[in-house]
């Protein structure tokens, strides 16, 4: 059986008359890590949203575990083991940390329950200290930890992190990377968008660079790291 989790073929996505994605192919298999890279506005979030059914591509196909999901509602991709941590995060501010985590609990696609409340607590000791605080009382970094913790409570096979450390202080960002590395080691496939090229390419085995809604590079993270010109040309500020 193929271990392909998520595939996109020839995706074209528009916002009104603006043509944003120009025929993008993407795929990720069980256990892989992909750094999705590119400057602001190049289409990274739109690609993610197009694959999850949050935005509907005009052309192209999306397959989840080999099944056609091109027209499937977003909640079905979640049921098939794909967890999404959107840019800007998404916790319930009026619920406590505990409630935020508990309400997301569910078993994975094959019934596995690797990620329990206790395991999330072990992974994010800082959340443990805040367990009865309301979501609104958390710092930006703690909110991001809670969002990732909630995603893990769904026992996903694929975790998609958009702007994983955006707006976070360097020390907190380092803590997030430590946790993401730990998650990668457990074999969960991961797609990561972040401006810190060094961090994402060290955590992910593959990298993909978008420029104006087209793939200009797809290869190993090592290739990206060994090629400062590629970084300067497509990712430099
Ligand atoms: N809801 C929307 N309506 C219209 N245009 C949009 C919308 N969302 C994004 N865009 C435009 O689509 C293009 C791609 O945006 P997208 O957010 O996918 O880029 P990105 O690579 O994720 O960058 P960023 O890190 O800035 O989010 C940009 O030109 C952006 O202005």
From TrEMBL:
> What is the top-level taxon of the source organism?
Bacteria
What PROSITE patterns does the database record attribute to this sequence?
ABC_TRANSPORTER_1, ABC_TRANSPORTER_2
Keywords for this protein = Amino-acid transport, ATP-binding, Cell membrane, Membrane, Nucleotide-binding, Transport
Which CDD domains does this entry report, sorted A to Z?
A: ABC_TM1139_LivF_branched (cd03224)
Under Gene Ontology molecular function, one entry of this record is:
ATP binding
Q: Report domain ABC transporter positions.
A: 6-237
> What Gene3D superfamilies does this protein map onto?
P-loop containing nucleotide triphosphate hydrolases
Family, as annotated: Belongs to the ABC transporter superfamily.
What this protein is called in its record is ABC transporter ATP-binding protein
């Amino acid at each position: 059986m193929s271990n392909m989790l998520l595939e996109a073929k020839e995706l074209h996505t528009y916002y009104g008359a603006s043509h944003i994605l120009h025929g993008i192919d993407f795929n990720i298999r069980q256990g892989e890590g992909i750094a999705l890279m590119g400057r602001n506005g190049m289409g990274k979030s739109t690609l993610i949203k197009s694959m999850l059914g949050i935005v509907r591509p005009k052309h192209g196909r999306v397959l989840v575990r080999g099944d056609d999901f091109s027209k499937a509602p977003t909640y079905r991709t979640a049921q098939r083991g794909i967890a999404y941590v959107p840019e800007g995060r998404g916790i319930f501010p009026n619920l406590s940390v505990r409630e935020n985590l508990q309400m997301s609990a569910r078993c994975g696609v094959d019934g596995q329950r690797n990620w329990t409340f206790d395991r999330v607590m072990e992974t994010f000791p800082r959340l443990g200290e805040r367990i009865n605080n309301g979501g609104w009382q958390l710092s930006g970094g703690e909110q991001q930890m809670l969002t990732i913790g909630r995603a893990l409570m769904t026992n996903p096979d694929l975790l998609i992190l958009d702007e994983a450390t955006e707006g976070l202080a360097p020390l907190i960002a380092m803590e997030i990377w430590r946790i993401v590395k730990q998650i990668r080691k457990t074999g969960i496939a991961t797609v990561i968008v972040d401006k810190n090229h060094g961090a994402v390419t060290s955590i992910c085995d593959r990298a993909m660079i978008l420029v104006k809604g087209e793939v200009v590079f797809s290869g190993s993270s090592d290739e990206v790291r060994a090629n400062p010109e590629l970084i300067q040309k497509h990712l430099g500020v």
